[in-house]
Design a protein that fits this description.
Elements: H1 14-66, H2 72-87, E1 93-104, E2 115-122, E3 125-133, E4 140-148, E5 153-158, E6 161-165, H3 177-180, H4 187-190, H5 193-199, H6 211-215, E7 219-226, E8 229-236, E9 240-245, E10 251-258, E11 265-278, E12 281-292, E13 305-318, E14 334-338, E15 343-347, E16 349-350, E17 353-354, H7 355-385
Parallel strand pairs: 6-14
Antiparallel strand pairs: 1-2, 1-13, 2-3, 3-4, 4-5, 5-6, 7-8, 8-9, 9-10, 10-11, 11-12, 12-13, 14-15, 16-17
Length: about 400
């Protein structure tokens, strides 16, 4: 018989046993859950890091696309689209300007400083006029021209001489200085198509935009500010270099044009003091055009400035452009050379046609009407006579 003081091993309390047996799995589950949460947090950290890297990468790509990652030909197309936006402002517009002849070494520019000009546009019509005096004889001279982009016809006047041509006449192209120095006059509009047939060769169109980007290989080579305006530099190595303001209406803020690879500078054009005149449309309020010595001059004169012109826009307005403001004012008895209708001589214009040409068509039209009326009357009388 066991002693009273001897310890007796009592059977375990069922409740405690249950508590113990249940607590072990619980701790195991908690530990496992913690490990899963830690792992999940780690994966979340990695995921967030990857997303951040992707976002930073995409942002850098976007910023690169905003800067100079456009293809050179795309920039050329955008320059042309910018030109079209200005020319096709629905209400029409008017621009007045003054040109200073800062330097004319050979005195062959033709105009005395300063002279003034005006441009009006309401699609598809374009009008320009310049008024000044000749540099040598101090004679007052006025030149004006009108061009229809849809008909591809122009009327130009210098004094009493009027030309009507099936292409964009020089008075609305090379003598339209504010747009010419922004390279608006495209070769496809300016050149007379018959010239190539007469010469038997293709005319050089590499000066004009967008033809330049289609006839030569250009590349984007960097970016640089021109008078505080961020520009993308587009270059045909050794021949042509343009600074294009891609964030300011694709204005060509500067262009350095050479005579050829490893040849001297031909001309430099600056379009600065940009001003926004409509949504996505910017124009330069100041333009500078510099012409340098030609290749046939003494080599010691190459890269020497020969002619410098500075144009300042004095007024720009949108709207209120009537048809009369877009037409050439032809004086009575002007000498008209109409290459479209093959009419040449002293005539008055009715609209855009020589008055004698209009009168002759009216006469023949009346004759035709008389003949038709006579034929109809004879037919009716014949039917009545024969009872039919």
């Amino acid at each position: 018989m066991p002693s009273r003081n001897a310890s007796v091993a009592l059977p375990p309390n069922p409740t405690e046993q249950c508590r113990v047996t249940k607590s072990l799995p619980a701790r195991t589950c908690v530990s496992r859950t913690c490990r899963m949460m830690i792992a999940l947090r780690g994966w979340c950290t990695v995921f967030v890091a990857c997303i951040s890297i992707l976002l930073l990468g995409s942002c850098s790509v976007l910023s690169a696309e905003d800067s100079p990652t456009l293809h050179a030909r795309d920039i050329g197309k955008n320059v042309r689209l910018a030109h079209n936006r200005l020319l096709q402002i629905e209400e029409g517009w008017m621009l007045k300007y003054q040109v200073e002849v800062d330097l004319d070494v050979h005195k062959d520019f033709g105009f005395r400083s300063p002279f003034e000009g005006i441009v009006r546009a309401k699609w598809p019509q374009l009008y320009s006029a310049i008024d000044g005096t000749t540099a040598d004889e101090d004679i007052s001279i006025e030149r004006e021209g009108a061009y229809d982009f849809e008909k591809a016809e122009s009327t130009a006047r210098s004094g009493l001489n009027v030309e009507i041509a099936p292409y964009r006449h020089a008075w609305t192209a090379v003598y339209l200085f504010p747009l010419r120095w922004q390279f608006f006059a495209e070769a496809s509009q300016y050149f007379d198509p018959t010239q190539e047939q007469t010469l038997g060769r293709s005319l050089d169109k590499s000066y004009w935009i967008p033809e330049a980007f289609l006839t030569r290989e250009y590349e984007v080579v960097g970016d640089e500010d021109v008078e505080g305006i961020p520009c993308v530099i587009v270059e045909c190595p050794g021949v042509d270099r343009l600074w294009v303001a891609t964030q300011h209406g694709y204005v060509v803020c500067r262009r350095d044009l050479y005579f050829g690879p490893d040849q001297p500078l031909r001309e430099r054009t600056m379009n600065i003091d940009l001003e926004q005149v409509a949504p996505k449309i910017w124009i330069p309020m100041k333009q500078v055009q510099e012409t340098y010595a030609t290749l046939d001059s003494d080599p010691t004169e190459w890269n020497t400035l020969q002619l410098k012109l500075t144009l300042t826009v004095t007024d720009f307005e949108i709207g209120d452009i009537g048809d009369d403001a877009l037409a050439v004012q032809t004086p009575p008895n002007a000498f008209i050379s109409d290459a479209i209708r093959d009419v040449h001589g002293q005539y008055e214009l009715v609209g855009d046609r020589p008055k004698n040409w209009v009168r002759s068509w009216l006469i023949w039209g009346n004759v035709l009407v008389i003949i038709l009326v006579g034929a109809l009357m004879w037919y009716l009388r014949s039917r009545k006579r024969f009872g039919t």
